[in-house]
Write a structure and sequence with these properties.
With 566 residues, this protein is α/β, with parallel strands linked by helices. It folds into two domains: 253 residues, Rossmann fold, CATH 3.40.50; 300 residues, Alpha/Beta hydrolase fold, catalytic domain (Rossmann fold), CATH 3.40.50.1820. Helices cover 26% and strands 24% of the residues. It is built from 14 helices and 24 strands. The strands form five sheets. It has a ten-stranded mixed β-sheet, with helices on both faces. A hairpin with a 7-residue loop joins strand 9 and strand 10.
Length: 566
Amino acid sequence: MGLIFKNVKKAGRSMYLYYPDVKRHNPYIVRLLTVLRNDDSKESAQKLLDGGLAALAEEKSFVLAFPNPAAGGWNYELKEDGPDDIAAIEALLSEVTKEDDDPLKTNAIGIPELSEMLRQWHLMALMRYMIGTDEESSSMAYAYAAVNPAEVSAVCGFGGDLSKNAKEKAKFVPTTALLTKAGKEAVEYFVKADGCTKKDENPNRIIHINETNPYSYVVEGRGENADINSLILKAYDMTFSKVRRINTGKIGDMTCYTDLTGDEFTWFINDDRLGDMSHTWLVHVPKDVKAGDKVPLVMFYHGGSDNPSEAADMAKLHELGRKEKFITVYPWGSNTASWNINYDAAKGDEDGCGDEKYCMLLIDYMIANYPVDAERVYVSGFSNGAAMAQVVAMLYPEKIAGLFHIDSNWPGNRWKPVELDINEIPAMRRALQQKKPEMRMPVWYTYGTREASCPVYKGCTQQYQYDFWKMFNNITVKETAAPGTPDAYESGVVGDKVEKLYPSTMYPEQYYVVNRFYSMDPDHENLYNYVLMHDKGHEVATVDPVLGWEFVKHFKRKADGSLEKI
């Protein structure tokens, strides 16, 4: 495809884009690398491509963005009488997912329509990397990463320094960095921002280490007399291939990028073994699971517009599976963008319905062909996938031993209250109609306090979810306070028991408030948990799946459909 020139009116600037030679909508991760250079010529971008960047983009699936500076070069000192390059770069990078300027068509609640999801490059928002290729562009990269760290997962520069104005405006948020021959101010800033207190030193480089979080570090390179293209490849090896940002603080935290290669993983691409329609899914089986074993199965459903690789990188349930000895499956929705959660038996498979059947067929396939304990099948998911996990648990409760979904904004409108009757929601209606009186479902649900429906209010998406699961589990359903009510509670309804947890050693400041609800059954079992993670946005935090698994793993679904505590 070559370099594409794109002028972005809202930025008042232009850039060159390079897209790898892969399908823009595929089951693998595609990341963004922003390359700053101190001129606006196509030739300068092409020279970097020819020197190795194009090969890197093709081999590692990167979209490359080459923002063009204003006529006077980058305003890396952030002078007030100069161009606002921070805003300009941010505006440019918001337009990298498509070559054209056509606005995206969205539905009533602002979600892009399916056709729009499919025509864009899907770049994970928190897997964005930036590199400066000379002193001035490196100084601009440092300034952008310091002032706008939420948009940068790792920064790399060659020479240059962090200006006084940039340092004064900096957020001091961890951002992994590779700084080769950089100035003192840049090194000192990133070392402090990353919380580094330890050094590993040799003649070629110093690695500044955060002893709590191994993915928050600074590499101070000493030059090694390498050319720019060699140093770019080094930047990939030392930072871009290892880290990503997660939206679990007000500006994010650093964590690892997940390697999905190796013989523990098996891809099923456009596979038709489940029926008439082909599907794609990724299976992870830990090495120590043997043919004669019977181990749990965890299904994790991706978020809207995401794919199996992105879901695996977010949830990292397969890593937990290695420790806890369970098999993980990451399916891709039938339309390869989102899950059809509006089940309606009257429609059958029309209008895209049928994902609930696909999910169940895949579970049955895993039980028949892998060493899966059929009594220990659990479902989880993120966002739209969290809704899908709920639908599967609602419609097939006799097959599912537990549900631990994350950040669902279904049903209703995440942005405002909506009057709904649970019996108007097809999957909920059918679940309540077909369930046996004694049927119960263990649920651990995690939501972030920076999400749209928090604090929880009457008529929001969260209320309809927890009202349903309380009804399902014979738990008292209490009224949720209306928006603006003085005595409203962050979680909507206070749990029968409330706990505060600090479960992460890597992020010791992160905490969860667990609202535990107990059934009215004779044993008063804790069957529903509404869990709020403080300061989390729309994201899977590293401990979200761990806490959920720790709860649901103590239940199994017997062959007769009854629930048993392990």
